[in-house]
Amino acid sequence: MWKIEVSEAAERDLGLLFLHLANSYVEFASNRREAAAQARKHVQKVFAARERIASASMRGERHDAWMPGLRHLILDKGVYCYLVDEGAHGIRILAIFFGGQDHQRCMLLRLLGSP
What we know:
The chain has three helices and five strands. It is an alpha+beta fold. A five-stranded mixed beta sheet has the order 1-5-4-3-2. It is globular, with a radius of gyration of 15 Å.
């Protein structure tokens, strides 16, 4: 059985995703309460999808040039950047981006230490 660990940076990504979605829903005529509920539901769906990585952890696209072992996989409009430790049956999620973001650029900037 695979153990999935979510980094602090990936947890922050979910918070940023919530804020982005809530603000977007308000702009499309939802009141703040409804917008927050819609955003929360979407973020929960994206976060829950992380468990599906364990069913086929090696299927994500590799990015060894950026970081040895780094992979990304798109599930339910969430883009997961992660590392696999086969020996320990562990998956460490380093980032979770929204499908509409330029996730490759965002991940490269993060790896380079840029804000």
